[in-house]
Specification:
6-stranded mixed sheet, 7 helices, 5-stranded mixed sheet, 559 residues, mainly beta, 12% helix
């Protein structure tokens, strides 16, 4: 008989590694005071984990779970129940057992000593209605590097999300940018959205002075709890994965305040064992939604710090499932991938993986707008923003929203003449945007292309172009830099962070402008169908004037 990964790993763990048994109850918090009182019944069948093993509560709601010297005990919130939140709208579904607290020398505070294991660790839940159709907010890489940039998050994103009908929010890592002292203010700002908020660890939440991965997320854990976990909502199960494996700095150097350790995008063996144990309790007709920081795969890089190195191990655990969706961040590009048998995933349909647009865009680079917020366009030409997940039973749609823009702003049309492509030296002689604005002479038309950046487009998206009353022209998806992004970064080099430069976009479409267009004014319309079958339109005015050359005179002979 073939052993499952979870069982095999459990067998390989020495008995001496178990230090104690955690016991407690998951109960219905009828009076909403967070404490188990008389008449508050236990809840059976709730999953409880130590980060590797998963057990179910018994008929009375009780559980017993072996744990090591350090552990986080956490539950998987079942459908039809709510987890309590603290004053910052952060779900409280875990207990940290770390008797000695975090190691010394981490620069940023971690977990205070928790002392001996309590005799009972109870988890309260409240009943609630969870409709099969609901929405959630998805953020990625807010990544403030300073107090000022937390202000940008508040102004650019949080203010327009207040009052949302979404049931909860999630952030896909790089919550901060190495300065972990910003956690309290950041959490306070996000809390203003007013909905429960779940968090995924990224590579910029790590305590970089940690000697290895074990204690790399001490500050993260002190705010958010376990670095990987799951919760149910209606017919969906949401899995938060930690796929940043810190390799550490070796011996801690007290003089190195930042740390020099690297990381690999990888899911640890313990985590895979936990996931397998969890999935054993998730029927195949459920929607499985996975949230992580580093992509499973990306177009921009094959670096081991970007693409998840052991994604095939994950695919094996998920194979056979139809209702799957996975999101990530990290690359500051917006991408869609579909994994199939060639990638190691075996299922009735390809596995859709979505790399989300980032809140910080180009790391809060660019000129300030009228609000004093940077025009932080991503390297692939996508305006910074976020996504709204829309779930209907097990069906998923994800809607992109550009921060501070109307909801129907989904693409941008620009016109480009061949000699403009390398034309950074021409910028001095033209107003911003003038080279791409669609004011051409008839002499330039034969060399002119039209670009459409469908901000959340991908390999299944289609775009067609109409010029005036002309027939629709199919546009080709190409891997090129967006010419408007190139110009934006070049013109504003003083406000763009040093590592930022335009990168090829996976959702840029191009078509040749018809050569026979004569002088006149035309409406150019782009019609796009995105990855979810949603139709979008954009328009731009094209003006063509006559030749700049003088009319040719009749043939004559010189005197």
């Amino acid at each position: 008989m073939r052993l499952g990964l979870a069982m095999l790993l459990t067998m390989l763990v020495p008995v001496a590694s178990w230090a104690a048994t955690a016991r407690g109850m998951v109960f219905e918090d009828v009076d909403a005071d967070g404490r188990r009182g008389p008449g508050e019944p236990g809840i059976a069948g709730v999953r409880v984990s130590n980060g590797r093993e998963v057990v179910l509560t018994d008929r009375s709601g009780g559980y017993a779970l072996e744990i090591g010297d350090e552990a986080i005990i956490f539950i998987t919130k079942p459908r039809g129940y709510a987890t309590p939140v603290n004053g910052l709208m952060l779900p409280q579904f875990y207990y940290i057992h770390q008797p000695a607290g975090s190691p010394e020398g981490l620069r940023y505070p971690g977990i205070a000593p928790t002392g001996p294991l309590p005799s009972t660790i109870d988890f309260p839940l409240r009943r609630r209605e969870e409709p099969p159709s609901f929405s959630a907010v998805l953020l990625s890489d807010p990544q403030p590097q300073s107090q000022a940039e937390i202000g940008f998050i508040a102004e650019d994103v949080v203010s327009e999300l207040i009052g949302t009908e979404a049931r909860f929010g999630m952030t896909m890592g790089d919550i901060l940018f190495d300065d972990l002292s910003l956690f309290p203010r950041y959490n306070s700002v996000i809390a203003q959205v007013g909905i429960p908020w779940y968090n995924v660890p990224g590579n910029h939440e790590m305590n970089l002075l940690a000697t290895d991965d074990r204690h790399a997320l001490e500050t993260f854990k002190s705010h958010y709890g376990p670095p990987y976990y799951a919760f149910e909502y209606a017919d969906a199960v949401f899995f938060v994965l930690d796929n940043i494996d810190y390799e550490g700095s070796g011996e801690v150097d007290p003089g190195d305040l930042r740390g020099t350790g690297g990381y690999v995008a990888r899911i640890t063996d313990d985590q895979l064992a936990w996931l397998e144990a969890e999935l054993a309790h998730v029927p195949e007709e459920k929607l499985v939604f996975l949230a992580m920081h580093s992509p499973l795969e990306t177009y921009l890089s094959d670096s081991p710090g970007v693409n998840t190195q052991n994604r095939r191990a994950l695919f094996r655990l998920l194979s056979g499932r139809r209702h799957l969706y996975a999101v990530a961040g990290h690359t500051h590009s917006t991408e869609h991938h579909y994994f199939d048998a060639d990638d190691g995933f075996s299922g009735p349909t390809p596995f859709h993986h979505h790399v989300l647009t980032t809140v910080s865009g180009s790391w809060w680079s660019g000129p300030l707008d009228e609000r004093g917020v940077p025009v932080a366009e991503q390297r692939d030409g996508t305006p910074n923003g976020y996504h709204v997940l829309e779930v209907d039973g097990v069906d998923v749609k994800v809607r992109y929203k550009a921060a501070g823009k109307p909801g129907d702003y989904q693409m941008r049309i620009v016109f480009d003449v061949a000699h403009h492509a390398p034309g950074q030296d021409l910028l001095r002689d033209f107003r911003p945007g003038e080279l791409l604005a669609g004011r051409l002479t008839v002499d330039e038309v034969p060399a002119a292309d039209v670009y459409v950046n469908l901000f959340d487009g991908g390999p299944r998206s289609t775009v067609e172009l109409s010029v005036g009353d002309g027939a629709p022209i199919a546009m080709e998806r190409v891997s090129r830099v967006d010419p408007s992004t190139v110009e934006l970064f070049l013109r504003n080099a003083a406000t763009v962070k040093s590592w930022v430069e335009a990168q090829p976009s996976s959702h840029l479409f191009v078509a040749d402008l018809p050569d026979d267009l004569g002088p006149g004014t035309y409406t150019v319309t782009a019609r796009a169908v995105d990855e979810f079958g949603e139709v979008h339109h954009a328009h731009r005015v094209l003006e063509i004037r006559g030749s700049s050359a003088a009319p040719a005179d009749p043939v004559r002979y010189p005197d």
